[in-house]
Structures are given as C-alpha cells and as structure tokens.
Design brief:
Helices cover 41% and strands 16% of the residues. It starts with a helix and ends with a helix. The chain contains six helices and seven strands. Helix 1 runs antiparallel to helix 2 and helix 1 packs parallel to helix 3. It has one domain: Glycerol-3-phosphate (1)-acyltransferase (3-Layer(aba) Sandwich). By secondary structure, the protein is an alpha/beta fold. Strands 1-7-6-2-5-3-4 form a seven-stranded mixed beta sheet, sandwiched between helices.
Length: 239
C-alpha cells in the first residue's frame, strides 16, 4: 500500500519535473550547469522515498574541471547521489537513455554526454571526445566506474574509462561515495538515513597507469563506504 501511495504521488511529480526541466533546458540547451540544476531538483525528492539524506560536499571557491566517480547501487541513486552533483558537471550515459519517456529527453537537453557502450571502437574514441570537452569547455564529468548497478553486491570492480579520461585530460579524480542503500524499499515508510560524501580530489599527475589509479580509488571508496555505513547504523538507532 505504501509503495502504491508513493507511486501515485512521486510519478506525477517526476513527470512534472521532467517537463519543466525540458522547458528550462530549451531556454539554454546543453548549458554546462543544466545537469546540476536538474540533479539537485531530483535530490530534493529523497524525503518522499522515506530517505533522510545527509549531503557532504565541500564548497570550493575556485572551479576546475574534474572527473567525478561514484558508486552505483540502484534506482535510489536518482534521488541521493544527485544531491552531490556540482556546477559545471555533466554525466556520461548510454545513448538508449534518450528514448526513455520524459527523463531521456531531459537527460539529453541537460547537456549530458551519450555514448554507444556496445561499440568498443567508438567507446575508445569517446574517451578522446570527452577529454576534448573537458579541456575545451572546461567541463567536469560524472561517471560510474562500476559500469552497472551493484544491487547489493558491494563495490564492483572498476572499468578503466574514467581513469584513462582523467589521466589523458590531466585533471583530478574526485570520488563520491554513498552509504549502502541495498535495504531501501519503496514499500517501507521510513528507509532511514543515507549519507553521500565527496572525498578529496586524487591528483592524477603522477599516475602513468590507469589500473593503479583505479585500484587506489577503489580502496578509498570501499573504506569510506564502510565508515559511512557504520555512521548510518548509529544515526538510525538514535532515531
């Protein structure tokens, strides 16, 4: 019953956000800040899912292009991780996303980068194209190095695309971690706390190997997720 009531409330709100977002993006199509505006709007929906979201994003006085990497767990990422998206940041997604009703059109108009993941040759070329956009347009990019939702399997092995991109573009990698949301349910009134935290940038200047950079970032993120999970347990018990 709770899930049904949520859907009756959230679905119209989500569609409205997508429609208004498309109108907003038509006014300034593909602007580099469109994605952050849309992301923060979606992040504001977390309470409707029974999620008490804590966002820890340091305020930087100087903008610089970076590659953000985040753990990718499930559909709840749409209203949790999105709260941490910074200005000047676009994400990288599958070309097929643009055909999703309402959301796909908004995703495309927001200026996000769409790639063909089924074509390995194009995928390699995409790294060059993304690097060019980072340098030329002074953009940051948001990527999910696991390549798919983990769905309760922990932090999966990283693919190398994000790390090759950061090294080639000569920008820092910024890990963003979200505490475990595997037990969150649409049918649960109170899903408790979730914490999303942006970690310190990892300088890629001294990394010649994307593999080593990926391994170091994986360890950093894995350790931090464990720390956040322990904090969430304490916060939930205090409620």
């Amino acid at each position: 019953m709770i899930a049904l009531l949520r859907l009756l409330i959230i679905l119209p709100v989500f569609i409205l956000i997508c429609i208004l977002g498309c109108i907003f993006c038509f006014i300034r199509p593909f602007h580099k800040n469109n994605t952050s505006v849309v992301a923060h709007t979606l992040g504001a929906l977390a309470p409707l899912f029974g999620i008490k979201l804590i966002t820890r994003v340091p305020k930087s006085s100087v903008y610089r292009p970076q590659v953000f990497i985040a753990n990718h767990q499930n559909t709840f990422d749409v209203v949790t991780l999105t709260a941490a998206v910074s200005e000047g940041t676009v994400s990288i997604g599958k070309k097929s996303i643009r055909w999703l009703p309402f959301f796909g059109q908004l995703y495309w108009l927001s200026g996000n980068i769409l790639i063909d993941r089924h074509n390995s040759t194009r995928a390699r070329t995409t790294i060059d194209q993304v690097c060019q956009r980072i340098v030329k347009n002074k953009l940051s990019v948001w990527m999910f190095p696991e390549g798919t939702r983990s769905r309760g399997r922990g932090l999966l092995t990283f693919k190398m695309g994000a790390f090759h991109t950061a090294i080639q573009a000569k920008v820092a990698i910024v890990p963003v971690v979200l505490s475990t949301t595997t037990d969150f349910k649409l049918n649960r009134f109170n899903n408790g706390y979730a914490i999303v935290q942006m970690l310190d940038p990892v300088d890629t200047e001294h990394y010649a190997s994307a593999k080593q950079l990926a391994a170091d970032c994986h360890q950093l993120m894995s350790d931090k997720i464990a720390t956040l999970d322990r904090e969430v347990v304490i916060l939930n018990n205090l409620d």
